[in-house]
Amino acid sequence: LALPQMVEAALPATGAGRELAAVVVEAQAATGTHIDPESNWYTKNIARFGGGFDMKALTAQPGLLAAKFDRIASKYAVWTVGNRCTYYDWIARSARAATDELRGEGAILDVACGIGLPGHQLRLCGFEGHMSGTDLSVGMLARARERRVYNRLFLADANAGLAAVESESLDLVLCVGALELLDHAICLPEFARVLKPKGELWASFQWEDAVDESGAAIASPTRHQNVAGVTLSELAAKLEMSGFDFDTAHVEKSHCAFYTPSPAQDGSSLPVPYLYVKARLASAPAVAPADV
Q1: How many C-beta neighbours within 10 Å does residue 3 have?
Q2: Residue 154, Cα to own-chain centre: how many angstroms?
Q3: 278 in helix, strand or coil?
């Protein structure tokens, strides 16, 4: 079911919206499906986490990364609630700013869809078009299938390209929470290839060399995992080289998209900063910023 932050993002910040959210919580609690953001498996075990994810080791042999995500698929929803992930709000605001055509008839691909949360958020926000999802994990796709929000789900490693997707066939490519684990030199040109001439890319990138609200540097929270993000200038260069127009793109900075367990394994967490990007192909019209 929809996670608490997904429900909050989808509903208006009004009295009526809050009342409806309370009804959802009550209904989920009655069926044993509600995840309490303050007390759950993640919050109760956070001191155990912080040392089990190493991209260098997980990519040393084929299949290791997929197997890792297979193992955590059953706990991924609780993990996402526990780490206070906020990018559903950006997806929801982007959805509200989208054209009626994209919301109603757009052909969408959710890349590295995991258990289906990004696609689910779009459905909560009224997207009605044909939506496909792809992931490298069989376990994650099984969980995504249970959400019943995708018209098609298929197994694919985005780092090997999107051979199963026709060129110029999509109105929207969505890739959230995954690009720090993907090869941009492969994925971004593939995203450009499968988009229609006026199609849009909505994507998140971990923000390297980020600064907080006061201008102070935010230390890399995932260096111990051998995971790195991109600087703003690197992002611009990568998008331009892949066929996107960075000058007309809209970039939103988030000082904390979610929290990751500290490698000290002392129960503390580190903020993970993100850059949210909405971009079109070079020569296409500019995209609208996310609704505020």
Answers
A1: 21
A2: 18
A3: strand
